[in-house]
Design a protein that fits this description.
By secondary structure, the chain is an alpha+beta fold. It contains three helices and two strands; from the N terminus they run H-E-E-H-H. The two termini are 22 Å apart.
Length: 94
């Protein structure tokens, strides 16, 4: 998932690439949920000294306009393009 654009300088070190991949993945997950009519909250649920992977995404079904859903799908598409991601597994589940 290393970007082939200006962001490649941010991710040239393995640990930074890994952290960036986690952030991008969680962002896309949240946007996909929102595009399918969920209101999302993303937060840390265990202190980082106990585990490095401690992000929880909570989705609550809500009413969304078609325009709001399209906006979120467009955001997902933009991130996928920026990071050269072909598809996200969560997209297949919906």
């Amino acid at each position: 998932m290393a970007p082939q654009n200006e962001l490649k300088n941010i991710t040239k070190h393995g640990i930074l690439l890994e952290r960036q991949a986690e952030i991008v993945t969680d962002t896309i997950r949240s946007l996909i949920l929102e595009a399918h009519g969920y209101k999302t909250k993303v937060f840390e649920f265990i202190a980082t000294e106990h585990t490095p992977k401690n992000v929880l995404i909570v989705g609550t079904k809500s009413e969304k306009t078609e325009a709001a859903k399209k906006e979120n799908f467009d955001k997902v598409a933009g991130l996928k393009y920026l990071f050269n991601i072909k598809t996200h597994y969560l997209e297949k589940l919906f």
